[in-house]
């Protein structure tokens, strides 16, 4: 790749090559039947040219010298055509010049476990789910993804990054008449970087039976009441709250208006950074791609900027937006290394990486005992927010009322709604124990991109929240 | 591209051993993507990608892999040989699959599109003549889908389309969303759409109205209704979701009805998606999903057909409609404002999800050009509102009328590949639509 790139570099101000190859395997068992293993092997490159104020990219899966030559010519064509028409003043931008490596920490590789052992584990979990005839569907799966990225530029950048992910999944559905309830340990939130050892860290074994039992409890439970009360959000709901009402509003490309036709705009403006009180003083949020095993850890973003931990919100005050090299220059504000593309065939845009709420000092029991009337919600099931990232409504799989400091009645279809700009100011307790999560399916961008992001959070308590149930 | 895929298919045949069978699906595109912001170019580029999904079958055992093709024959022969070797090595470790079903009767078809696209550079040049603060994306190029199997079946579908999807902004979140999609770029038609957007933008310049939560009479334009269906199409119409009680239409299966004017079908004949699927089955022209408000048929993939002992109707593995068709009503679109009288004219909805899935109660936001209407006249733009309502109200008890005119919507989705899905829908006049925040 290096040799072919050197051969095809045109005489332009800036040229980069981003090579991505990704290999995955997914094993599934549904209702105790092993489904066909699914493999993917995706390989391609993106060539980007910046020249005399114009920009263009071209992506191809033809990695030969001829293929790269054809692609770079197309990128040059777009750079030529866009000159004098770019919304970005590219003459003001110096792309990072970096060398480095990053490799996911893996203790036990996926390939070191036989397929029979992997399927046995999935069958074992699946076999625990059918507790009675009200359990109507259940499935277990494991997916591994191995990614290699090489980033080269005509200015001497050379970055090599290797990632390994594991995504476990269990889903159980219970039904009686016109009521269906589900409990999940979902690959939409539980992915981490690493190998087989991740399953022990996540206590995967035995989860199927627990989820099935909880689905049956929900099926027999009354609807969540409709009233204003304290809400205690478990980490697997906090991640959606962070993602939708902190992460997306703070993306610089949204603030700059790039996403107004699709993913939306934001209520946040540039003048808020440094002085706006985003939440209560208990709120501390970091952009941290340095945590071993967290889903979106990396050494460098896809424009070669070195990644480091940065406070986004400190003691409730808004400090730093989520924007990469180009957005930072456009907005004239410091950001983070988050220009990321979901693969070789999409260009980098501002994305979350690991965006985490830092742990506080309240134990679970302290938080619980502080609530006279409230509800504990676990595991996100529904998410919706306006295009300015303000009016939100979220639903969870599991609700349990809190009365006089004690967990009491289980309730189904728990939902709550609020407004981002005021919600975080109602943060009254932050737990002392944080949990890592990975979200593999964050959609954004034109052309559309599905991105892997990570979140970590403790359990948190919010006061005076509008809570409601189902029909 | 077609000949290339068929050459690869012939090559796969030569690599089989013993009783092995293969199924192969080809998914490729040559696309230009140009993003705009503030009436200037943001990110222009091109993507050329070719994927092949190969499924190796021996008896009831099967394994598959999706791999990238380079477009260079010898390189791709090597990739395929390596892939087949990997799948063959795994086959003995995989149990027999009782629900494996694939077409064994050869049914070859081809639908070959003609490339009448304007050069993307020229389209971009014309788009840049538009004035005002617009933001969006122009996507164009060829989309290619193929199927082949070891029985000799060959299917091909190609189309050359463009889709300019943009929003013209007044300020903050006040904008008019528009789309111009098709096969032949017509400058007159494009300019007409631009003029329409500018005219609607004038209304958005007025002081916006904020309403209190409550129940309102609304008109859902076809694009807004399509947002509801885009949520609904996930897991609602497939046999697997019905039998596992996971469908949001659970209550329809249990006997609850929608309004008698609601007739929904998968209308492959009048859509833009391929008429074949990845196990080689051919889709019928139409599948009736809901007829006059009552559940009719499900989309049945080959796997579900085998599992539930039914006949497949050629649905894709995800049993997701690709060519949705909601029958027209009898109400003239030009009388909508008069009939709406006092209420809300909604052009677009946004970010829908379920607040009670089993009851098909959904929530979402208004977005873009939404107007407050009084006595049949648009009075002001409306600030965004959250709504929360069941389908049994929207398209059931509270549905007043569907429009006689329908809109043909070509999906602008570009996740992984450019979508070939489409929908044909009327607008809907609904009373007592619940806004919550």
Question: How would you characterize this protein structure?
Answer:
The complex is a heterodimer of chains A (471) and B (437). Chain A has 471 residues and is of the alpha+beta class. Chain A folds into 2 domains: 2-220, PmbA/TldD superfamily (PmbA/TldD fold); 227-468, no CATH class. Chain A is built from 10 helices and 24 strands. Chain A has helices spanning 2-8, 65-82, 115-127, 198-201, 207-220, 235-247, 252-255, 325-331, 364-369, 420-423, and strands spanning 14-30, 33-34, 38-51, 54-60, 99-103, 135-153, 158-176, 179-185, 192-193, 227-233, 285-287, 310-314, 317-318, 339-340, 349-350, 355-357, 373-385, 391-403, 406-411, 415-419, 427-430, 435-444, 449-457, 460-468. In chain A, strands 1, 2, 3, 4, 5, 6, 7, 8 and 9 form a 9-stranded mixed beta sheet that branches. In chain A, strand 7 (158-176) and strand 8 (179-185) form a beta hairpin. Chain A is globular, with a radius of gyration of 23 Å. Chain A starts with a helix and ends with a strand. By secondary structure, chain B is an alpha+beta fold. Chain B contains 10 helices and 18 strands. Chain B has helices at 2-15, 73-90, 120-127, 187-204, 222-232, 239-243, 250-253, 302-307, 336-340, 391-397; strands at 21-37, 40-58, 61-68, 109-111, 133-149, 154-171, 174-182, 214-220, 264-267, 286-291, 294-295, 323-326, 343-356, 361-374, 377-381, 386-390, 399-410, 422-435. In chain B, a hairpin with a 2-residue loop joins strand 1 (21-37) and strand 2. In chain B, helix 1 (2-15) crosses helix 2 (73-90). The N and C termini of chain B lie far apart (51 Å). The mean pLDDT of chain B is 97. The chains are: A alpha+beta (471), B alpha+beta (437). Chains A and B meet through strand 2, strand 3, strand 4, helix 2 and helix 3 of A and strand 1, strand 2, strand 3, helix 2 and strand 5 of B. Strand 4 (54-60) of chain A pairs parallel with strand 2 (40-58) of chain B.
């Amino acid at each position: 790749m290096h040799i072919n790139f050197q051969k095809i570099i045109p005489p332009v101000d800036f040229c980069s090559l981003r090579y991505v190859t990704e290999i995955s395997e997914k094993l599934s068992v549904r209702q105790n039947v092993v489904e066909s293993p699914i493999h993917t092997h995706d390989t391609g490159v993106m060539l980007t040219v910046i020249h005399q104020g114009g920009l263009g990219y071209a992506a191809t899966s033809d990695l030969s010298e001829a293929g790269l030559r054809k692609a770079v010519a197309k990128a040059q064509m777009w750079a030529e055509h866009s000159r004098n028409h770019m919304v970005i003043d590219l003459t003001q931008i110096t792309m990072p010049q970096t060398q480095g490596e990053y490799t996911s920490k893996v203790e036990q590789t996926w390939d070191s476990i036989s397929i029979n052992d992997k399927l046995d584990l999935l069958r074992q979990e699946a076999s625990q789910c059918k507790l009675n005839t009200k359990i109507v569907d259940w499935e277990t799966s494991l997916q591994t993804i191995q990614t290699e990225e090489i980033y080269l530029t005509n200015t001497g950048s050379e970055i090599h990054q290797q990632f390994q992910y594991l995504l476990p999944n269990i889903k159980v559905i219970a039904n009686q008449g016109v009521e269906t309830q589900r409990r999940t340990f979902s690959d939409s939130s539980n992915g981490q970087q690493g190998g087989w050892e991740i399953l022990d860290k996540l206590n995967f074994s035995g989860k199927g039976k627990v989820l099935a039992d909880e689905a049956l409890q929900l099926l027999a439970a009354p609807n969540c009441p409709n009233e204003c009360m304290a809400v205690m959000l478990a980490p697997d709901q906090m991640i959606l709250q962070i993602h939708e009402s902190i992460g997306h509003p703070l993306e610089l490309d949204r603030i700059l208006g790039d996403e107004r036709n699709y993913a939306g705009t934001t209520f946040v403006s540039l003048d808020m950074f440094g002085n706006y009180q985003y939440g209560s003083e208990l709120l501390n949020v970091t952009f941290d791609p340095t945590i071993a095993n967290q889903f979106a850890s990396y050494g460098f973003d896809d424009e070669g900027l070195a990644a480091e931990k940065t406070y986004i919100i400190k003691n409730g005050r808004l400090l730093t937006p989520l924007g990469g090299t180009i957005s930072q220059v456009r907005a004239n504000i410091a950001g983070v290394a988050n220009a990321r593309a979901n693969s070789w065939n999409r260009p980098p845009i501002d994305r979350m990486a690991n965006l985490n709420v830092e742990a506080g000092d309240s134990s679970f029991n302290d938080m619980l005992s502080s609530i006279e009337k409230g509800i504990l919600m676990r595991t996100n099931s529904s998410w919706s927010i306006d295009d300015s990232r303000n009016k939100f409504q979220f639903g969870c799989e599991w609700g349990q009322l809190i009365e006089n400091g004690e967990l009491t009645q289980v309730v189904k279809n728990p939902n709550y709604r609020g407004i981002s700009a005021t919600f975080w100011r109602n943060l009254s307790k932050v737990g002392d124990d944080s949990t890592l999560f990975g979200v593999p399916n964050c959609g954004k961008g034109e052309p559309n991109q599905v991105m892997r992001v990570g979140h970590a959070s403790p359990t948190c308590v919010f006061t005076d929240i509008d809570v409601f149930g189902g029909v | 591209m077609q000949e290339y895929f068929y050459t690869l298919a012939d090559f796969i045949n030569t690599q089989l051993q013993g009783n092995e069978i293969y199924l192969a699906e080809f998914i490729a595109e040559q696309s230009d993507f140009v993003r705009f912001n503030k009436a200037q170019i943001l990110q222009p580029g091109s993507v050329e990608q070719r994927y092949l999904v190969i499924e190796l079958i021996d008896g009831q055992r099967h394994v598959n892999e999706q791999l990238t093709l380079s477009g260079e024959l010898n390189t791709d022969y090597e990739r395929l040989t390596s892939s087949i070797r990997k799948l063959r090595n795994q086959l003995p470790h995989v149990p027999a699959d009782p629900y494996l079903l694939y077409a064994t009767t050869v049914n070859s078809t081809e639908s070959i599109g003609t490339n009448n696209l304007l050069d993307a550079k020229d389209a971009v040049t014309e788009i840049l003549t538009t004035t005002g603060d617009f933001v969006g994306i122009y996507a164009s190029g060829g989309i290619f889908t193929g199927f082949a199997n070891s029985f000799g079946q060959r299917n091909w579908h190609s189309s050359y389309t463009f889709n300019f999807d943009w929003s013209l902004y007044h300020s903050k979140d006040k904008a008019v969303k528009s789309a111009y999609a098709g096969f032949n770029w017509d400058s007159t038609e494009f300019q007409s759409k631009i003029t329409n957007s500018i005219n609607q933008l004038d209304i958005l310049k007025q002081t916006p109205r904020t309403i209190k939560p409550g129940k309102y009479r609304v008109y859902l334009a076809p694009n807004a209704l399509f947002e509801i269906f885009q949520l609904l199409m996930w897991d609602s119409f497939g046999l697997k979701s019905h039998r596992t009680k996971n469908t949001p239409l659970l209550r329809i299966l249990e006997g609850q009805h929608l309004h008698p004017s609601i007739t929904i079908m998968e209308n492959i004949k009048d859509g833009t998606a391929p008429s074949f699927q990845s196990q080689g089955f051919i889709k019928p022209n139409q599948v009736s999903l809901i007829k006059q408000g009552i559940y009719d048929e499900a989309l049945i993939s080959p796997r579900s057909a085998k599992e539930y002992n039914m006949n497949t109707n050629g649905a894709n593995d995800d049993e997701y409609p690709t060519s949705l068709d909601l029958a027209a009503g009898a109400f003239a679109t030009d009388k909508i404002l008069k009939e709406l009288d006092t209420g809300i004219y909604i052009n677009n909805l946004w970010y829908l999800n379920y607040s009670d899935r089993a009851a098909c109660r959904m929530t979402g936001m208004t977005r873009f050009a939404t107007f407050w209407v009084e006595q049949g006249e648009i009075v002001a733009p409306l600030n965004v509102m959250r709504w929360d309502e069941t389908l049994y109200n929207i398209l059931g008890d509270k549905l007043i009328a569907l429009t006689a005119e329908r809109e043909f919507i070509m999906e602008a989705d570009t996740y992984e590949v450019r979508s070939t899905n489409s929908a044909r829908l009327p607008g809907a006049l609904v009373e007592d639509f619940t806004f919550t925040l």
